Predict the 3D structure of the following.
Amino acid sequence: MASIAIVTATSVEAKAARRAMPDRDVIEAGIALCHSGRVEGLPTVISCGLAGGLHDHLPTGTVVIPFDVLRPDGTSMHCDRDLSERLIAAARAGGIEPVTDPIVTTMDLVTGEDRRAWARRGYAAVDMETGLLGAARVAAVRVVLDTPLRELSEEWLAPARALLNPRLWPEAIWLARHGPRCAKLAAEIVRDALSSIH
């Protein structure tokens, strides 16, 4: 179990995970696993980071630990039960009641009516990585960042370019405030869940 890899998408998520777990293998695989070379062939991974919330009642900072993930190809991935239960227990020990409803992995940023459509189908959140992981054992901790009440521009899929757009600077300020906080929460839950695994 010491070989569990922590997979993150962005530098914000990776930095939080490395600070919380300096002794763990933390992989920054890129949005939609665009830099997924180090992820292939790993036996056990935990997807750790941010997600888009699909319901108005799940605000920024909501912890989602799913048992099931809908992949982009329409198939379902069942998360590793033991790892998921450890993550849930760690969240609860920290005073957080996680949402355990399924999440969906998409290849595009989900906004507007698409967000509401996924919510009606019973999904709690959306990410762009977890359902792409091909490891034998996968679990996930995703913390809601954007919500139906606080959507983000699709331009943030290319952050360096988005920062050059003055129209997006208010979003950049919001992201700088909430992104690291939410990523830190996800990382600390993973750290606490794995602290008893040697």
